[in-house]
Amino acid sequence: SVDCSFSRGVCDWKQDADDDFDWNPADRDRGDGYYMAVPAFVGHKKDMGRLKLLLADLKPKSSYCLIFSYRLAGERVGKLRVFLTNKKNTPVWEQNKGKDERWRTGKIDIFQGAETTNSVTFESERGKGKTGEIGVDNVILISGLCRED
């Protein structure tokens, strides 16, 4: 497995230059490192911020499981979507509201066919809300398909 978490991960993360705002590091409550977040008040409604994970060494014709922690905290905070390179316009995962402030786990299967996925994009869309944030943390890539817990 490959640890792509932000504090100590080995992965290559890039801010998208063509979006409306950047994701920023935010300190974890426990004080052990940080996660990436977009506060609810950044930008205007429907503005987008994209954080891209570059994947250089995935083997063709194999499968992977991308596991990550996410949080949508606050009233009408917006949407969090995940895109894979080879399916640019259709999100493979989307969440638009949190039931509470808790962190949850997202899982996405990545199949390497003839076209390989060389990046995963986390996209935050600004909602109507003025408080809260969208956060992503603990991004890990594991060989093989995701298992149901």
UniProtKB/TrEMBL annotation:
Gene3D superfamilies: 2.60.120.200. Residues 2-148 form the MAM domain. One of its GO terms (cellular component) is membrane. InterPro entries: ConA-like_dom_sf, MAM_dom, MAM_domain-containing. This is EGFL6 protein. The gene is Egfl6_1.
